[in-house]
Amino acid sequence: MISEASGRVDACQYLSPAVPIPCFHGRTLVDESASMELSPRLRDDLLNLDAWSEILTTYGRTMRVAVALTDPEGHVLGKCHNAQPAWRLIHDAGHGWGTGCPFCIATSPPCTAVAEAMQTGGTVMVRDQAGLTHVAVPLLLGKRRLGAIIAGQVFDRYPEPLPLRRVAKEYGVSAQQLWDVARKQRPVSRAILQASGDLLCALGHAFLQQRYGAILEANLAEANRRFRFLVEGTRDCALFTVDSTGHVTSWNVGAERMLGYGEAEIVGHNFSCIFTPDDIENRVPEKQLSKALQTGRAEDDGWRVTGNQKQFWANVNITALLEDAGPVRGFAIIVRDVTERRKIAIILDEARWDRTRLQEKFLSHVSHELRTPLTAIYFFTTNVLDGLLGDLTPGQREHLTFALDNVKQLKDMVSDLLDITRVETHKLNVEPQHTSPVKLIAEALSTCRTNAAAKNISLRSDVRPDLPFVWADPARVRQILINLIDNGIKFTPEGGTITVESRPIVEGEGFLCLSVSDTGCGISPANREAIFDRLAQVKSRAEASRSGLGLGLFIARELVSRHAGRIWVESQLGRGSTFCFTLPVFSLAKLCAHVFTASNLAKGFVILIAVDVVPIEGVVQADILPEIRRVLERCIHAGQDVLLPSMSDADPVETFFIVACTDPSGFTVIASRIGRELQNFDSASRLKPVVSSTTLLVPPGQSTKEQTGGVTAGIERLVRAHLLGKERLK
Ligand code: ADP
């Protein structure tokens, strides 16, 4: 029956469904090793009809069958080879090639045999009731199904007149014509067709492999040609390869132009000739190759030298040429001359620095200029508020208190601005020392108490009195704490609470964590990182933030990171925030690590030198102590001995301790140097250094850790005893 809509045959009406006859399961075109990506272009190339034409025609002629290539769905690609007269007849009647499988044209695609062959990966033979028999051989490349070859005939026996007439009617050809061609045709038997399946499979397989190899080779040759073209045509950068020992194996035109060596001249020579003499002496070429070998790639910016001994600033990329898990075959090196780029970068950098310096100068000038009148306003307002100029009416007091609050805010802003300029010019220094966190917390809380009281906010400290000492700049830690507490007060409604606590150590041993919690408005997750940025303020809190510049947390983060710690916030909107930061715990052993080396400990002793600075008359002025510390710093052997920080809570302390591993004569040298230097330092200050020493014995036969622990404890005991003794003498 011919379907009205499409004009095609609906075979199911009079043909029983084609039954696949599995056969030839022995051989398929499977190559498990091939697992490359199969692009549509490669697929088209592999199934190129012209390439297959000869083999298909020869096979068709020899076996007296029609042959065609199909896609995986069974559509004929192009035309049928060795098409038999019956097929030509049907084809000429308007059933063109390429619309479906010619052998089961009546069933229309998908071809049952191809579908089965594609699914099983094996060869399949189909014969239907109209006498149409054909074989489908799948074309497989690795696991990929490319398509199939189908071979067959229209009739494998002279057809009965009735089916013949039906077929003729369905295809719109005359029954007589069909009968004529069927008679002329000398059909092969099904047995031969079946046997030829094996042959077709072998032929197809061999041809596909050969074609695949040829395509790969052609692609490789094309890639090589393009690569050569690229390498040779690249004139602005040097491209060359070296072997695993650094000897040049190839050299492009760009390399010749840039580095001044011809290919013949340089191939076989070590590429170190393009390095400066200093780099060669420091074995930089070898180090770069070994880095590329370890990490696969090495990049470097530095001076390189041409054959004419001209230096230029180069950007160099070295890539190791490795074969999967095999030894290195060599290195590909790309050199770019970036001298001009560097010059521009330097100019831009200098311009930026000039701008920053100018900005810093301006800010620092303005800040200092603002500070003087602010201090005067602060001073005189405080005097008036303290009643030094007589009693104030409640109204006057209220106005003046308001003025004083604003002056304080201005002072804080000015000092934030000064810190920011220091951050920008890398001058925000911290001077870490042996510092008591308990004392700093108490000081910070007492500074903030007035502000808190004004808002009826209670300040609490919940820290153990025996917190370990930290290695930090006390003034800077105080600044961080005050900033966090002040923020807490600012963003907490009246009647709230601010608590300063210490937390269990979070960063592993060696760090102390301090936290400031409030019961305020909290911070949304989106803002928790951003508030640490410069000038960051949460928009919805414009009112409360007005008294700040959005610099406090930025400066706090800079300060904490200069102590090698970190700062973060934990918060819940509407339920308060907890700002935490870490500081390194003071460790005498860590500080003295370079004195407590295994070879020094093996000497069996470490010397502790105490320098007491005694005034000839009066007392030692506290502000001179940092100067004395700097003088003593110069008197010890840099990197060999240690000048201990002030290890007492009582500030200032006029005793300095030096840990040294030296012999007694070495001690005499240090002592006389200290005497001389302190005298030169300021004869007017009339200071007398009293230098004494104690030798700590290192017990032999212990591990280095035990010995270090023992010496550290000994030094701590001696320091405490010395300071206590001095205290008693006073
Ligand atoms: P500012 O001087 O403006 O307070 P900071 O850098 O100290 O600048 O803080 C930046 C912003 O972070 C503040 O404007 C505020 O929005 C938010 N913030 C800081 N501390 C708190 C806090 N304890 N509770 C809620 N928000 C806070």
Structural features, described:
The chain is of the alpha+beta class. Helix content is 44%, strand content 20%. It is built from 22 helices and 21 strands. It has a 5-stranded antiparallel β-sheet, sandwiched between helices. Strands 7-6-10-9-8 form a 5-stranded antiparallel β-sheet, with helices on both faces. Strands 12-14-15-17-16 form a 5-stranded mixed β-sheet. β6 (237-242) and β7 form a beta hairpin. It is elongated. The chain starts with 18 loop residues before the first strand and ends with a helix. Mean pLDDT is 81; it is low at 1-36. It binds adenosine-5'-diphosphate. Adenosine-5'-diphosphate is lined by residues 487-488, 491, 518, 520-521, 523, 531, 536-538, 541, 545, 548-554, 577.
How would you classify the helix and strand content by structural class? alpha+beta
Bound molecules: adenosine-5'-diphosphate
Quaternary organization:
single chain
What distance separates the N and C termini? 125 Å
The whole-angstrom Rg is 46 Å
User: pLDDT average, as an integer?
Assistant: 81
Low-pLDDT runs of 5+ residues are 1-36
**Total DSSP E strands:** 21
Strand content: 15-25%
